[in-house]
Amino acid sequence: MSKIKEKFAELEAKNQKALISYIMVGFPNEKATITAVRGLVKGGADIIELGFPFSDPIADGPVIQNASTISLKKGTKISKFFSIVKKIRKETDIPLVLMTYTNILYHKGYSKFISEAKKAGIDGFILPDMSIEESKEYLKAAKSNADTIFLISPNTSNTRIQKIAKVSTGFLYLVAVYGTTGVKTGIKNYTLKAIKNVKKQTKGKTPVCIGFGISTPKDVKKYIKAGADAVIVGSAYLKLIEKTPQNKLESKITTFTKSLKKQTLL
Amino acid sequence: MKYPKNGRFGEFGGKYIPETLVPAIEELEENYLKFKDDKTFKKELDYYLKVYAGRPTPLYYAKNLSEKLGGAKIYLKREDLLHGGAHKINNTLGQALLAKKMKKKRIIAETGAGQHGVATAMACAALGMKAEVYMGYKDTIRQKLNVFRMDMLGCKVYPVYSGSKTLKDAINEAIRDWITNVETTYYLLGSAVGPHPYPVMVRDFQSVIGNEIKSQMKKINRTPDSLIACVGGGSNAIGTFYPLIDSNAEMIGVEAAGKGLKTKLHSATLSAGSKGVLHGMMTYLLQDKEGQITETHSISAGLDYPGVGPEHSYYKDTKRIKYHSATDSEVIDAFLMLTRTEGIIPALESAHAIAEAIKVARKGKKSESIVVTLSGRGDKDVEEVQNYLKRNVKD
Questions:
Q1: Residues of B in contact with A116 (CB under 8 A)
Q2: Residue ranges covered by each domain of chain A
Q3: Architecture of domain A3-264
Q4: Catalytic site residues of B?
Q5: What is the band of B223 on the pLDDT scale with cuts at 50, 70, 90?
């Protein structure tokens, strides 16, 4: 059983839903990443999503775009990323998911990238521009080695939801709104409906996690109440990291994470 | 390749897109397949191409230039004479008409040099629709004339400040807009790039260029020995080459070598790039060792792009089409030579094709004929050329 699956099973036994926290590696530097991860773990995050920067992040809003640019300017490389993951792994065995864009894996070679990432301590992958139609090679490379997490949108048809659920392991990433990451549009009715529908279509076999634009404990509460198995918070963390001095970063992240995690206890 | 199976030209192409766009792309393909051979649609499009855009465009024998070079005969396919001043209108009329059939109310587009933005604004105005255009901030400065034109055509222009502030970033921002407004919006992509079905659809709309060349050459009892066109994303080139792909003509796509292929300051994707995934397609890209897309340079904003249409990548690998490049300096020379010998001011993009034609013609026999697609006119570029000449003293 994968680490991500184990985590969801463990939470279910405790009658909890999951908090998935996203940060961009190397934003604004390596030290901040390591410190932020400590805060996330202390605050009770269940899974950590680590963003690896790409020059052209088409699915991301201004906050993650900016973080990507800064991280790249600071010299974040794949080898550096893996070494940071290894450092994190010395401190915690929390499930780690890598979020980046297809070209980063494609360019290095899916197999090579995935096996190196796995060795460093990555448990799963999210590629927002990887459609199931183009995923054959990627899936083959990840097979039994790492979880491949695919996205579903509120406008995805039921037949397609079934197809995506078939290849998505670990969890399903339901995009909350039409739009890019981090844009606050308020909680929409169509999103609440989509949560219920995806749960119904997948018959609870794969956890349904919701992300994009979720930033407050109030948001978390509402989505959990609507039936989501987890909420994913990203841009809100990056904003916090940006404005917090290094010496207060760990405690600030811990406090914020606790406030979010509290809403996932049923 | 008539219609690419699974959206692939060989291994190139595909649709690497965020899930939110999947229904929109499926709807687009469905409608494109429904209308592309529909008699009424074709008739309507032909009408606009003829009486609005000014087709067919002439095939002009550049006698002065050919004689000056003393080799093969150069024929210019005068896409620069089209309404708006470039080949872009062939595609925008086609897609805007399709968008109208699909009952889309809002049209968005990206633009590099501004020619596609202007052509989108014009086609939308003609068909009673509104357009909004994303343009890299750097391009809004160096092609400001086209920004004014779009303004006057009632089209909103959004400068894009992210990344290299050029065409690549304008496409990123247009895709983000499309993801956000997917239910109401039609994305009118300007080159033969992006996720399937855009590359094949744009090629088909631009194939009017090659089809006319075919019949115009036949009329003067000639067959082209060489076909030459510039390649950024590659829409005028694929429109020129594709209808003649089964002929014996040599085909040369000309990329922007900027300050030279060794300097990194260029946009010669096929000449110097490697395979990767960007903007929904697998194709040749300019990228670093880590798969990060690198910043490009060209004196012509329209070629300043680190990717290329997937069908070109396919023809590069199958060796059906050769891809060469021209430096900024060669382009300025070609620009001036055509302007002075023929009284035709080419767009800087098209001047890349002229630069190659000059080389090919010099080596060619007088009995041979070269057809060069003059994809656009150079009025938009005179200030840029003037600045270049001030910086680099040239005769």
A1: none
A2: 3-264
A3: Alpha-Beta Barrel (3.20)
A4: 88, 110, 375
A5: very high
Give the pLDDT confidence of B141-150 residue by residue, as tens digits: 989 999 999 9
What are the pLDDT digits (tens) for B308-333? 999 999 999 999 999 999 999 999 99
Interface test with B, best of A69, A81, A106, A134 (most B CBs within 10 A): A134
B147 is written with which tokens? 């920004």
Q: Does A254 touch chain B (CB under 8 A)?
A: no
Contacts (Cβ under 8 Å, ≥6 apart) of A5: A147, A169, A170
- Residue where the block lists tokens 């301590």: A121
For chain B, the average pLDDT equals: 96
Identify the DSSP state of B230: E
CA distance B271 to B277: 17
- Kindly report the CA angle at A254 between A248 and A255, in degrees rounded to 5? 90
Six token digits for residue A228: 């989501």
Of A218, A129, A237, nearest to A175 (Cα)? Answer: A129
Contact B115, B376 (CB under 8 A): yes
What span, in angstroms and rounded, lies between the C-alpha atoms of A47 and A88? 13
Alpha helices in B49-87 (DSSP H): 63-69
Q: Do A147 and A124 meet the contact criterion of CB atoms below 8 Å apart?
A: yes
